[in-house]
Amino acid sequence: MMPPYLCGILLAAMLLLGSHATPAQRPATSRDDLITVSGTVKDAKTGEVLRGATVQQIGANRGGLTNLSGLFRVRLQRKDTIAVRVSFVGYEPEVVGIDNPSDGMQLPPIGLKQASGRQQEVIVSANKRVQAAQDVPISVSIVKSDDLQQRGIVRLDEALRYVSGISIARDQVNIRGASGFALGVGSRAMVLMDGFPLISGDNGDIKFDVMPVADIERIEVIKGAGSALYGTGALGGVISILTKQPTEDFSASARLYSGLYTGQPYPQWEYMNGFPVLGGADVRMGQRLGDLSYSLSGGFRYDQGFRAFDRTVRGFGFGKITYSLSDLTSLKLNLFHAEDQRQNFLYWKSLDEATRPPAVQDVNERVITSKTAVGLEYTSILSDVSSLIVRYGVFRTMFANTFVNVDAPPDKSIALAHSVDVQHTASIMSDLALTTGLSARINSVTSPIFEQTLQTIFSAFTQAELNIGSGAIVTAGLRMDREETLTLEPHLELSPKLGVSWPVTDEVSLRGSIGRGFRAPTVAERYANTQYGPFRVRPNPSVLAESAWSSEIGASWRNTSLIPFELDVAVFDNELFSLIEPTFDLTEPDIPIVFKNITRARILGLEATLRVAASEALMAETGITLMDPKDLTLESILKYRNRVLWYSRMMWSPISSVSIQLEYRYQDRVEAIDDRLSLFITDADIRVPLHIVDARVFVDVSQKIRLGLIGRNLANYAYTESIGNLGPTRAVLFQAEYR
Fold first, then answer.
1. 277-282 long-range Cβ contacts below 8 angstroms, 24+ apart
2. Strand 105-106 with 34-43, pairing
3. Helix/strand/coil for 230
4. Would 31-115 and 123-738 be classified into the same CATH topology?
5. Where do the structural domains in the chain lie, given as residue ranges?
6. Which of 128, 295, 648, 667 is the most buried (most CB within 10 A)?
7. 3-state class of 519 per DSSP?
8. 0.70 cut: is pTM over it?
9. Do 377 and 329 touch, CB atoms closer than 8 A?
10. Residue 384: DSSP 8-state
11. How far is the first Cα of the chain from the last one, in angstroms, to the nearest whole number?
12. CATH code of the domain occupying 123-738
């Protein structure tokens, strides 16, 4: 494993190698040295225009995107011959040579071929602007909409379980060991949908049931501290969800699925006669109508649960409306609402009765939640070299505990998370791009659990990307955040970053980065005063922000001859300071849980991902993450962390209308937990490694109808994802799609 000082030395060496490839000084490009070139980008097979395709001049930091009509108009640096790289998500990039270019010239239509089993070429979220994947200095994994459909995904966390370096315990996302398990409080991964934050204002947690799966185009997972651009919460990484764009013609899709849990692996775990059922439906439609485009989707979920007292019912709807004020300016409105009612299974009665709650659990309790998100975005291309994005969003979350046949007002909490983001991107010179911005987040909470609480975070950030020659790009950024809660003293956080990407050849590229992340304590961590099952949670307003330094050296190799494959390898080092963890206060008679800064930790790791296309009909991928998580305070292994995460996937299409998929997921046994949980939970120390096998068969019965048979946890393997909680047992589902 690589210590941080060695990562820094290698990163500096890469910078020096890149800097020797070009003169030390470079004059700024005047407008007389620029020419305007326009054209259209289409799908080479279908002729459909591609909106949002990247057009980038090779060797110069200039280019742009295609608009809703697939048209681009870019200002390029004048040369005798210009090479332009055109790329789009899910398509092979195309390099177009322009001989004897002239100002105002119109290029013939550019056709891109769909990629076969390859990672997307365009990254949006790593640097808050569209870039080629090879220009990003940090590890990014991408989940495509096809992956969501083919896996029968109904919640976003199900898709993230098959991303290298990620493990999930209930709703807690752990990216490369940055997070443990904290009762669903305080996510160390920032989550955004179309640029709008979706972290609750009270618990600071992720609401996976808010994500409109049918409308997701792709998910970008940025690994490592991302606070230099995204501020608090991006301690371990960023999960950025990008929704679909409407097509030119009216389009509609629908999905209906139904299935059952096939039974428990042990007879004593059976809790009902028959098999628990689950099912749901999604519908989506969209179209572009002149300057207006819309996308609407909605659905419901029903899950009887594989345990007693675990039933969930949920409904949701999503809408996105975009209006083009001009060729250069647009407005976008995002709306989302979800409601659910569920029984509240906290933990098992014992290992022998793992599907039943303990006697202290009131089975008449119901948890009702609602989530509403509204986001408004204004985008304007100010000139040939600059653009402006202004976003305002509000995320309202509500949860209430109520009881069946009890005529009493529910115990309710309402949180509003307001966010404002102003971002300006400009090409200062032909080789320099500058992104600057201001942002604010205001969390307002009204609850008997937290009382009336207000938390404010105001931020300013800037990031420069400099092309230093031979395709090498140096990225440097800095963000300042000021956080204040109620009458507590405000504090400042500075989050710098430095990175470099270097395409050594057309097939091999290197990258390196180092950056700081932080997370301000959530309202729940500071002020929660409640009873959660047998656990008494008490406030601790003195808890401080936690922070991290993440460094990485990585390389990717894309081979296109003989058997095409992609190999990506990264060595990383995460240094974690003042981690906020729930701990038991043994000085109090009722042994309450209190959130405290208790841990200084370090996680060294190696991650490798391989994708192979043996043929157009047979593809495979595998990813493994090896980690050494150390608690430097206790001089022991860090609690609730894995050492090994491994997943593999095989996709085979014996004929064009049939697709067969097989997936395997492994996590080694978590070595350390908080042993004091055994005071409250029987058999709390029961843990095993994970061996999960999923399989799917899809058949296209026509161009518009697809049928699927989906098997989850086929071996009916028994395991726990969190203390005293079984993971889902085997389920078999039938799915029908109309496209």
1. 277/302, 277/304, 278/302, 278/303, 278/304, 278/731, 278/733, 279/733, 280/154, 280/256, 281/254, 281/255, 281/256, 281/257, 282/213, 282/214, 282/253, 282/254, 282/255
2. parallel
3. helix
4. no
5. 31-115, 123-738
6. 295
7. strand
8. yes
9. no
10. T
11. 47
12. 2.40.170.20
Domain 31-115 sits in CATH 2.60.40.1120:
yes
Closest by Cα among 294, 305, 298 to 284: 298
Rg (CA), the chain: 26
Q: Indicate the burial class of 616 (C-beta count within 10 angstroms; 0-12, 13-18, 19 or more).
A: exposed
Give bridge partners of residue 695 from the DSSP assignment: 662, 711
3-state helix, strand, coil in the chain (%, to 5): 10, 55, 35
Instruction: List CB contacts of 660: < 8 A, sequence separation 6 or more.
Output: 651, 652, 653, 654, 695, 696, 697
Point out the residues of the chain with pLDDT beneath 50. 1-29, 117-120
The CA distance from 119 to 609, in Å, is 11
- Please give the structure tokens belonging to residue 405: 């046949």
Residue 518 has which token pair?
């932080």
Three-state secondary structure along 72-134? EEEEEECCCEEEEEEECCCECCEEEEEECCCCCEECCCEEECECCCCCCCEECCCCCCCEEHH
E-only strand ranges, 189-328: 189-193, 196-197, 216-223, 237-243, 251-261, 277-289, 292-303, 312-324
The pLDDT score that the predictor gives to residue 125 is 65
Q: What number of H helices and E strands is found in the chain?
A: 5, 44
The span from the CA of 261 to the CA of 281, in Å, is 18
Residue by residue, DSSP assigns 437-477 as EEEEEEEEEEETTTEEEEEEEEEEEEEEEEEEETTEEEEEE
Determine contact, residues 378/349, Cβ cutoff 8 Å.
no
Using DSSP's 3-state secondary structure scheme, residue 298 falls into strand
What are the tokens at 441?
């987040």
Cβ count within 10 A of residue 72: 22
d(CA 586, CA 592): 8
Amino acid code (one letter) for 71: L
Q: 409: Cβ–Cβ under 8 A, 6 or more apart, which residues?
A: none
Tokens 């379980």 label which residue? 161
Q: How high is the pLDDT of residue 5?
A: 42
Q: Label residue 698 left, alpha or beta by phi (over 0 means left) and psi (-120 to 50 means alpha).
A: beta
Q: Look up tokens 């989050």; give the residue.
A: 495
360: left (phi over 0), alpha (psi -120 to 50) or beta: alpha
Tell me how long the chain is. Answer: 739
User: How buried is 99 (Cβ within 10 angstroms: 0-12 exposed, 13-18 middle, 19+ buried)?
Assistant: exposed
Q: Residue 168: which of 243, 239, 74, 250 has the closest Cα? A: 239
Instruction: For the beta carbon of residue 115, count every other beta carbon within 10 angstroms.
Output: 17
